[in-house]
Write a structure and sequence with these properties.
It holds the Pfam family Abhydrolase_6. Keywords: Signal. α7 packs parallel to α12. The protein is globular. It is of the alpha/beta class and about 375 residues long. The protein has one domain: Alpha/Beta hydrolase fold, catalytic domain (Rossmann fold), CATH 3.40.50.
């Protein structure tokens, strides 16, 4: 492997050990306390000793693995993303495929896909990390990666835990969730992928083609949750646009509005119901599951506490006004607190919340355009 690494560009060579606290913590205050507590939870279920962060070469995926049995859906919204018309674009597009080693073990090999325009000037450019939704993979995001690359960004996508190249079959993600519920040894829902994203930021800031002060992050649905928490945990993500992901987990439990989110990974909750001796899934089952697989997700790390700590970095939250998985009333408190945080920081225009009327759990072309404009303005 050392020989293979020697053939990689200088910015892709292995880097040394990584300590998240050195990068994610502010000097003092509530934001620093949040990040310290959150990183402590992330570290609590690392099952193997720390390993040096490194990269290994990979090949393009010819046959991406999509999980579940439902239809993949349309890429129409992604394909509508603004592109710059470039003659012979395909020939000028550079593609990189790597594995980023974030910890020992199979799930510690993060598949990374990077698209950018070939650049002889070697100037540093802004970069954006894109995160896929549940049951999909990084290759699904290619229309967005190409669109942003055409406009001068370095576009990055990864497979989240138990997805894409990190999955073995069509039930890998659900199987991992059920295993986490029963064994309490991993956090496949949101948290473990956020660990990878903290390490990804470490790698991206070392690349000579990326401006480390201009790294954005966005994602759809599960990817929106990943983007939200990664930006809260790591200030190196300088601009964030979570799409149909931000929600109030505790609010949903207290107001009996948890069904939409539960339905997205229902086999997990059915197994928990059986294990708890319940006839139906109820709020107790939901709370017990969150406590087990994502500690404090419905308390100290919930949106009223985690979203405001992104201030004063530019933050755009995009949701559907009729989204059952991210109910609009459950966002009143986090949006209000976040708006106040940006006001107090002196940057009220760096936060924006848009709930698109008449839209459920769906990323629309309008959302894609809003995200594109936001990144163009702040990156």
């Amino acid at each position: 492997m050392a020989l293979a690494l020697a053939l990689l560009p200088l910015w892709a060579l292995p880097v040394t050990c990584y300590a998240p606290e050195a990068h994610v913590l502010s000097p003092r205050g509530p934001a620093a306390e949040f990040r310290s507590d959150f990183v402590r939870v992330l570290r609590s279920r690392r099952r193997t000793p720390a390993v040096p962060l490194a990269v290994e070469p990979a090949k393009p995926v010819k046959h991406p693995l999509y999980q579940g049995n439902g239809p993949l859906g349309s890429r129409e919204a992604m394909e509508s993303c603004p592109r710059k018309k470039i003659k012979d674009f395909k020939e000028k597009l550079a593609e990189e495929n790597y594995y980023l080693i974030t910890e020992a073990g199979e799930q510690g090999r993060v598949p990374v896909l990077i698209l950018s325009l070939k650049d002889e000037t070697r100037e540093r450019r802004p970069a954006i990390v894109f995160l896929h939704s549940s049951y999909k993979c990084k290759e699904w995001l290619r229309p967005l990666l190409e669109a942003y690359a055409s406009r001068g960004y370095v576009s990055i996508a990864i497979d989240s835990r138990y997805h894409g190249e990190r999955a073995n079959n069509k039930t890998t993600y659900i199987d991992a969730l059920i295993s986490a519920w029963r064994n309490g040894d991993t956090m496949p829902f949101i948290y473990d992928t956020v660990w990878d994203l903290i390490k990804l930021a470490d790698y991206l800031t070392l690349r000579k083609d990326i401006d480390s002060s201009r790294i954005g992050i966005t994602g759809e649905s599960l990817g929106g949750m990943h983007a939200w928490f990664a930006a809260a945990a790591d200030t190196r993500y300088s601009v964030a646009v979570p799409i149909i992901g931000v929600q109030g987990f505790r609010w949903a439990i207290d107001n009996d509005q948890w069904q939409g989110r539960v339905d997205s990974i229902k086999p997990l909750f059915e197994e928990a119901r059986i294990d708890l001796g319940k006839r139906v899934i109820d709020k107790e089952v939901v709370k017990r599951v969150w406590d087990r697989i994502a500690p404090s997700l419905d308390s100290q790390f919930d949106s009223p506490h985690s979203v405001p700590v992104i201030a004063p970095r530019p933050l755009l939250i995009l949701n559907g006004a009729e989204d059952p998985r991210c109910p609009l009333p459950g966002l009143e408190t986090p949006v209000s607190r976040t708006s106040q945080a940006y006001q107090e920081a002196g940057f009220p225009k760096k936060f924006k919340f848009i709930a698109e009327p008449g839209i459920g759990h769906l990323m629309t072309a309008k959302m894609v355009k809003e995200a594109s404009d936001w990144f163009d303005e702040f990156l």
